[in-house]
Design a protein that fits this description.
Rossmann fold, 11 helices, Ribonucleotide Reductase Protein R1, domain 1, binds zinc ion, about 30% helix, binds guanosine-5'-diphosphate, single chain, alpha/beta, OB fold (Dihydrolipoamide Acetyltransferase, E2P)
């Protein structure tokens, strides 16, 4: 292979051993793994991977010749097998959790799940609350304040009233973002209005739409005009809460994490134990009662699944 034929690229998606690779000049090539890499058990390719591709001769098929080190990953762990993980998407800079103020009604517990998955994978998260045109100022304030107090950057947006789109655009530009949230909250509408070149069909990246093909297709990266990518993760739901240690879920709530190490008991579950610094923080308003309740619920759920497997 001639050296000047080699190019760096990002894997957009893969089906049946054929991977679509986006090179820095914006071209997309179909490529398969070079034989040597295919044999290597450790060289499992994932969407989002940075790779080198090349052709033996001009006009030949493209082959992936090298997989570059990953800087992050969203991985799905199998229940019961904590170490067997499958990377859903790699090199994600941030998880962008999208919900709507209404239609569909947001559920704080569900927002927390998405945020916990991001935290458990060590990926930064921000929250988008869309359809602010349909909510009163005080309803908007209540929900956004809840998450701002937890330490998250909250974007209040409206596609219809064109609110907050520029700021969200700038938060996505040039980065790899996993956009996630329930269907109908406006993910495709937001992307279409911020990145007119992207031309996503409205409803295209809804998780419900993708539900039927979770296992076969996995995530897909959408290149953004001007640089950066958005992963239409068929869900952080796909990544799931599996494998998150129930005893470590307290560290997945940033405001609770800030209290760790201050409880009377080292193995404090921050529920009914005396001398709990987290519950003290709830009483003082540093941790909200809603988030604490969410934590208790999630912890119990994870402990229950650990017990089962
Ligand atoms: P997705 O499933 O998350 O991709 O959501 P869509 O982008 O398909 O949007 C679902 C519905 O919500 C569509 O009918 C959109 O027109 C509507 N929608 C999206 N954003 C807004 C918004 O900011 N305000 C209002 N009122 N409706 C919106
Ligand atoms: Zn405690």
């Amino acid at each position: 292979m001639t050296a000047d034929a080699a190019q760096r690229g990002v894997v957009l998606e893969g089906t049946g051993g054929v991977w679509r690779v986006h090179t820095s000049d914006g071209t997309v090539h179909s490529a398969s793994l070079r034989g040597r890499l295919k044999q290597d058990q450790h060289a499992k390719l994932a969407v989002g991977d940075n790779v080198t591709i090349g052709q033996d001769d001009p006009g030949d098929a493209w082959a992936i010749t090298e997989i570059h080190p990953r800087r992050s990953r969203l991985a799905r762990r199998a229940p019961g097998k904590r170490h067997a993980e499958r990377i859903v998407v790699s090199n994600v800079d941030q998880v962008v959790v999208v919900f709507a103020f209404v239609k569909p009604e947001p559920h704080a517990g569900m927002i927390d799940r998405f945020l916990v998955i991001a935290e458990a994978n060590g990926v930064a998260a921000r929250l988008v609350l869309n359809k602010c045109d349909l909510a009163t100022e005080s309803d908007q304030m209540a929900l956004s304040a809840l998450y701002e107090r937890a330490g998250y950057h909250v974007h209040r947006t409206s596609v219809r009233a064109r609110v907050g789109l520029e700021e969200l655009h700038d938060a996505l530009a040039g980065r790899v973002s996993a956009l996630s949230g329930p269907s109908g909250v406006g993910k495709s509408s937001l992307l279409n209005s911020m990145f007119p070149g992207v031309e996503l069909r409205v409803g295209d990246i809804s998780e419900s739409v993708n539900k039927g093909r979770h296992t076969t297709v996995g995530a897909k990266l959408i290149p953004l005009p001007g640089g950066g990518f958005v992963a239409d993760t068929p869900g952080l739901r796909e990544v799931g809460l599996w494998g998150i240690d129930s005893n470590a879920v307290d560290a997945c709530f940033p405001e609770i994490r800030a209290c760790l190490g201050e409880c009377r008991f080292q193995d404090c579950a921050h529920d009914r134990e005396p001398g709990c610094a987290v519950r003290a923080a709830v009483a003082e308003g540093r941790v909200s009662a809603e988030r604490h309740a969410s934590y208790v619920k999630l912890r119990a759920e994870l402990a229950e699944s650990e017990h089962r497997y």
